[in-house]
Amino acid sequence: MSTRREFISNTGKAMVAGGLVTLTENETPHMIENKFIHHVYFWLKNTGSKEDRAKLVEGLQKLSKVTTIKTFHIGMPADTNRDVIDRSYAISWFVLFDNAADQASYQVDPIHLKFVEECSHLWSKVVVYDSVDVK
Questions:
Q1: Residue 6 falls within a domain, yes or no?
Q2: Number of folded domains in the chain?
Q3: Residue 117 domain flag
Q4: Which residue range forms the structural domain that includes residue 119?
Q5: Is 13 within the bounds of a domain?
Q6: Bridge partners, residue 96, by sequence
Q7: Which of 4, 13, 54, 62 is 20–30 Å from 47 (CA)?
Q8: Could you tell me the strand order of the sheet in which 69-75 lies?
Q9: How far apart are CA 103 and CA 97, in angstroms?
Q10: pLDDT digits (tens, 9 = 90+) for 1-40
Q11: Could you report the per-residue pLDDT of 41-54, keeping only the tens digit for each?
């Protein structure tokens, strides 16, 4: 019978050997460069309405079909609580474009216009943060 320490050590070795855990030296985070970031926060009119939240998420999923979008993320407030964190929004929409021209094209894209037409009745407030690289 092995000790607890031996069991944990052997389990860890087996996970690495089996490819369940990958260890790399000097792994660094990937920086997003030369992109236009568009981050939108939505507050629902019917705060706490699961139906309205689902409709907004569905609308954003349709909106993700705009061809100039390179990457997107639909999110909700994380369960983190510190004085600097604002968790009052319902849904966030993070979008990555190649450049400002692609973002401008997105604003007038028929898919975006239809999203606003079909979903704007769901929100009471929208805040947008656009950013580009520090030069």
A1: no
A2: 1
A3: yes
A4: 36-131
A5: no
A6: 37, 71
A7: 62
A8: 69-75, 91-97, 36-44, 123-131
A9: 6
A10: 556 555 555 545 544 445 555 555 667 888 889 999 999 9
A11: 999 999 989 999 99
User: What is the amino acid identity at position 23?
Assistant: L
Residue 115 buriedness (CB in 10 A; 0-12 / 13-18 / 19+)? buried
> What phi, psi does 92 have (nearest 5°)?
-115, 150
Question: Most distant CA pair in the chain: distance in Å?
Answer: 68
**What span, in angstroms and rounded, lies between the C-alpha atoms of 79 and 85?**
10
State pTM to two decimals.
0.78
Q: Which two tokens stand for residue 46?
A: 């019917």
Q: Tell whether 5 is covered by a domain.
A: no
The residue type found at 115 is F
Q: Which two tokens stand for residue 122?
A: 């769901």
CA dist 104 and 21 (Å) reads 42
Task: Annotate the chain with three-state secondary structure.
Answer: CCCHHHHHHHHHHHHHHCCCCCCCCCCCCCCCCCCEEEEEEEEECCCCCHHHHHHHHHHHHHHCCCCCEEEEEEECCCCCCCCCCCCCCCEEEEEEECCHHHHHHHHHCHHHHHHHHHHHHHEEEEEEEEECCCC
